[in-house]
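R.M. (postdoc): so does anyone remember the format we settled on? I'll just put the structure tokens first.
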């Protein structure tokens, strides 16, 4: 396959943002980059695939998350590249290419929210609106040295967003600084927060061992700063019991829901998918009810364990197992350990905040704080310790 030019963060088919009335509010003057999975009134939504772009008319209304943020004063500066159909942990796109990582030139940005992260990291946007299904806000946040919030699944509307897997998808935010993230979170989230006091931290050794030794060593000082404020338990998460296979569960349910939502479109229009994405779409078309039942059994086991673990506690883990890979590097070996770290939040719908944690060889790595549903604000409070 011919190597594509490296694009900037923004999709080229949106050259002008339709004017809209200026509004006051806590985000007045904030420049907003919107992942091209979200509908913006008057603009096409491309979802990272040229056939999708060609077979869907421009949006007639804003996605709910877009409407809320712009209603609070943010103004859209562009729509950003996404991994194809958001079906990529690494932001690969065989049709349009993938933006470079402004915080690590020559390396990938990662996640299907890669264009949004690149826009925020390069400084052309202050606030990024992305989506996170399996880590696509958290991973680029960690690899670009940004703050990235995957909110509690129930606290953000997914209306007007091209879905990958409705059970796991959630709009998320990316910023360069914590105060703006706190303000934007206050605008975007619905429902009252869970105000259960955070009494401790859990940093399970078996999850930390998914990260490379250099990453663990680099993040240790940040963990120690947190542990100076709250007791920290580092015993293995799963102990001697077999761990629920949440990576299998994630793959099965994601594939099942993708095909239920998009299978008819795939069969009608026969879109060309890039490597990796095409394989996952083919696997999705063959998912069975027995597989789904088995997957949901594993998800239930994880939810039960997390409800007990995160009662008054925050899970602290590396955002990703390694720094951002170089462009063109083989990312296959990273997929399983990434989902080992990100998949728990995804299948349970937990809020997760990636905080800039350290560098390894000059490349950013993030620390991720994971709480019980509704504790998004508590995670932001805890992150103040690391500023």
């Amino acid at each position: 396959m011919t190597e594509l030019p490296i694009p900037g963060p923004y999709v080229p088919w949106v050259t002008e943002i339709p004017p809209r009335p200026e509004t006051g509010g806590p985000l007045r003057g904030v420049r907003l980059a919107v992942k091209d999975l979200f509908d913006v009134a008057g603009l096409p939504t491309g979802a990272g695939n040229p056939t999708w772009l060609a077979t869907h008319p421009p949006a007639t209304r804003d996605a709910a998350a877009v409407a809320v943020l712009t209603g609070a004063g943010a103004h859209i500066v562009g729509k950003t590249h996404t991994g194809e159909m958001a079906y990529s942990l690494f932001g690969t796109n065989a049709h349009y290419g993938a933006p470079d990582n402004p915080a690590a030139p020559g390396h990938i940005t990662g996640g299907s929210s890669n264009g949004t992260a690149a826009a925020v990291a390069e400084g052309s946007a202050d606030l990024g609106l992305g989506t996170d299904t399996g880590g696509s806000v958290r991973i680029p946040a960690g690899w670009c040295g940004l703050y990235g919030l995957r909110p509690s699944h129930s606290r953000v509307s997914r209306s007007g967003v091209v879905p990958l897997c409705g059970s796991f998808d959630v709009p998320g935010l990316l910023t360069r600084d914590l105060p703006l993230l706190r303000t934007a979170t206050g605008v975007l989230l619905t429902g009252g927060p869970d105000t259960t006091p955070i009494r401790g931290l859990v940093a399970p050794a078996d999850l930390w061992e998914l990260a490379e030794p250099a990453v663990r060593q680099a993040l240790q000082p940040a963990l120690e700063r947190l542990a100076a404020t709250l007791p920290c338990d580092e015993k293995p998460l799963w102990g001697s019991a077999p761990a629920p296979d949440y990576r299998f569960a994630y793959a099965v349910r994601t594939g099942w829901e993708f095909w239920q939502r998009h299978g008819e479109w795939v069969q009608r229009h026969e879109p060309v998918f890039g490597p990796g994405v095409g394989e996952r779409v083919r696997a999705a078309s063959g998912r069975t009810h027995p597989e789904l039942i088995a997957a949901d059994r594993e998800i239930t086991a994880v939810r039960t364990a997390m409800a007990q673990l995160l009662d008054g506690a925050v899970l602290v883990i590396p955002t990703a197992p390694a720094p951002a890979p170089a462009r063109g590097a083989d990312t296959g070996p990273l997929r399983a350990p990434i989902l080992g770290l990100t998949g728990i939040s995804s299948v349970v719908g937990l809020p997760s905040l990636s905080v800039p944690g350290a560098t390894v060889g000059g490349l950013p790595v993030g620390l991720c704080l994971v709480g019980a549903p509704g504790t998004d604000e508590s995670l932001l409070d805890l992150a103040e310790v690391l500023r």
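R.M.: ...and that's the designed sequence above, right after the tokens. Also worth knowing: The chain has a mean pLDDT of 96. Strands lie at 31-35, 75-80, 127-132, 147-150, 170-175, 200-202, 232-233, 313-318, 352-360, 363-370.
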